[in-house]
Structure to design on (609 residues):
């Protein structure tokens, strides 16, 4: 069901206007007249001023609250008690610290690997005693992309990044002109002959 | 650095009964969190609660007046006290929430690492301090520079060691932070820079204290002005009878150590009828005032008239009809904390025509903060001026009527 229609239906059921005007939001026709007593207080609850009516039922207030502040659109603010907030904060800080440490460790590991490869290449270039021929051969990229059955390294399919959705032309430009016009990833005209 | 591991499942199971292990004695400068002893106290007192009710947890109306009579009034609302009395009163650090306890362990581990780094940094500093300056390529200057940067790093590590502690955060929010410790100084400065400093800088620049009184200032001190119990925001109008007595200043510093400062209260808006412009006048001048992060209060009435005050308080007053007067308060730091010779300075200091710039250059001072309040003619100004023995309360100043140029007149005679 659509959200707005659901709100309309709920508003009709509870007989409240759909758009909150200030007057309606403040002045609430009280449906229940029973006095709610707080479980914490040992004294009788009294209204702040004489002549003012009893507070409306908590449930009605809550229904109104969630109608006017739907959680799907505007999430409620986090309201914690002090201890709970401090616990939340502690966990948050620890999580950030942990993430930062993991990140730094990963970075250092990458740096170490890069340096090791660099040193190995340098050793090959200078220390092999063949004038760097081996190094030059090792750096050549021929035959990297090939078909494994023909003795190559990596299939050419993997030269392109794997994506969820490759578009109508498979990344070969727009479908109107040029190469993209001929590139079809799906031939919808095709019939079994 | 080894990557810190995520907490293992084995640890999670034994969490509830776990007490946090002590750090090794070598690094145990201070425990991560000092477990509060309220739990044990509550246990002891609960043995005979009706004989000896606790003001924290008493909630019965009959027991409250007895406590109040004994001089220990109940704390907080009855609702809160009741909730406290019925809760198990576990100290915050031992609350049995798994994720919270795991988080605490990570933070404790990090703190221990930071303490280790602090030890290493201290040892390094000691080594550099011992070393002969000729061994460095840059000589003594390089050594001092190196030492300064190492000290800064040490301070940074000290802050990092404590910044994740929830009890530190709680103590700071309660206003119970010890300003001797770097972490509380850091938190206080951060809080100050977040908003109050921005307001202060805005006021002193918009009301032109900065080019008019001091050439340039980057406030590093929090200045709070109060007349008696009445706090004054920077730039507020203060009635003349309130500002008749000198104000109390709170000069909160955020750096370690004592500072020797000079305080000048200068009014740059004194109308000068001869030259048709404005002069400046010094309303208060005092030197050799020692402030530190823990002792920020400076009461201008309490300063010693012999060794500190150069010019005593002159009540701020604005003549009727004159535009409002800015009473700018400038805090100047004395170079290398060397006290000024008051007798010599007193001979040179004059109220009328006082300029902060010349005073600064004469005594090698640098402005470290500034603030202001404003005053204008009000009902009490005449009485204040009479009590202070100042003339001019019976004069009302008026702006000179400027005759418009002939072609700008609305109805020139040539039209008639």
């Amino acid at each position: 069901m659509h959200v707005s229609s659901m709100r309309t239906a709920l508003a009709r059921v509870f007989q409240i206007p759909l758009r909150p005007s200030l007057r309606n939001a403040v002045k609430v026709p009280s449906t229940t007249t029973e006095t709610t007593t707080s479980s914490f207080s040992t004294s009788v609850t009294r209204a702040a001023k004489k002549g003012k009516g009893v507070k409306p039922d908590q449930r009605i207030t809550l229904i109104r609250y969630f109608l006017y502040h739907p959680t799907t659109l505007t999430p409620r603010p986090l309201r914690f008690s002090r201890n709970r907030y401090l616990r939340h904060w502690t966990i948050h800080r620890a999580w950030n610290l942990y993430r930062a440490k993991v990140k730094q460790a990963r970075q250092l590991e990458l740096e170490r690997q890069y340096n090791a490869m660099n040193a190995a290449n340098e050793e090959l270039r200078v220390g092999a005693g063949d004038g760097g021929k081996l190094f030059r051969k090792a750096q050549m990229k021929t035959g990297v992309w090939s078909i494994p059955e023909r003795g190559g390294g990596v299939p050419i399919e993997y030269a392109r990044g794997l994506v969820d959705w490759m578009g109508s032309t498979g990344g070969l430009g727009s479908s109107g002109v040029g190469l993209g016009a001929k590139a079809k990833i799906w031939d919808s005209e095709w019939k079994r002959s | 650095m080894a990557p810190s591991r995520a907490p293992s499942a084995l640890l999670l199971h034994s969490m509830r009964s776990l007490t946090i292990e002590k750090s090794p004695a070598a690094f145990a400068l201070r425990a991560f969190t000092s477990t509060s002893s309220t739990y044990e106290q509550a246990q002891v007192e609960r043995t005979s609660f009706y004989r000896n009710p606790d003001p924290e947890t008493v909630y019965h109306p009959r027991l409250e007046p007895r406590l109040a009579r004994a001089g220990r009034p109940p704390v907080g609302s009855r609702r809160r006290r009741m909730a406290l009395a019925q809760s198990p009163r576990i100290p915050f650090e031992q609350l049995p929430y798994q994720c919270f306890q795991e988080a605490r362990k990570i933070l404790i581990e990090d703190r221990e690492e930071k303490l280790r780094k602090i030890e290493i940094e201290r040892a390094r500093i000691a080594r550099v301090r011992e070393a002969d300056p000729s061994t460095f390529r840059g000589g003594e200057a390089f050594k001092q520079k190196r030492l300064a940067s190492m000290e800064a790093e040490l301070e940074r590590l000290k802050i990092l060691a404590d910044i994740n502690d929830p009890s530190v955060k709680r103590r700071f929010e309660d206003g119970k932070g010890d300003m001797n410790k770097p972490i509380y100084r850091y938190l206080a400065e951060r809080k100050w820079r977040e908003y109050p400093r921005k307001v202060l800088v805005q006021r002193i620049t918009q009301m032109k204290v900065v080019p008019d009184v001091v050439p340039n200032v980057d406030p590093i001190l929090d200045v709070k002005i109060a007349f008696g119990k009445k706090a004054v925001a920077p730039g507020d109008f203060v009635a003349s009878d309130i500002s008749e007595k000198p104000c109390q200043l709170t000069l909160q510093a955020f750096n370690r150590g004592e500072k020797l400062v000079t305080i000048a209260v200068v009014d740059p808006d004194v109308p000068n009828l001869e030259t048709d412009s404005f002069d400046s006048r010094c309303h208060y001048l005092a030197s050799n005032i020692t402030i530190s992060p823990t002792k920020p209060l400076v009461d201008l009435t309490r300063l010693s008239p012999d060794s500190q005050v150069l010019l005593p308080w002159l009540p701020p007053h604005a003549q009727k009809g004159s535009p409002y007067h800015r009473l700018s308060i400038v805090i100047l730091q004395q170079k290398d904390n060397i006290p000024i010779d008051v007798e010599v300075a007193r001979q040179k200091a004059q109220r009328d025509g006082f300029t902060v710039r010349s005073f600064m250059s004469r005594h090698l001072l640098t402005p470290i903060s500034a603030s202001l309040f404003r005053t204008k003619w009000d009902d009490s100004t005449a009485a204040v001026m009479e009590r202070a023995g100042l003339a001019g309360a019976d004069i009302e100043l008026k702006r000179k009527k400027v005759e418009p140029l002939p072609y700008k007149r609305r109805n020139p005679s040539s039209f008639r």
In short: Residues 82-127 of chain A form the longest helix (46 residues). The CA atoms of residues 143 and 172 of chain A lie 24 Å apart. DSSP finds six helices and no strands in chain A. Residues 3-68 of chain A form one domain.
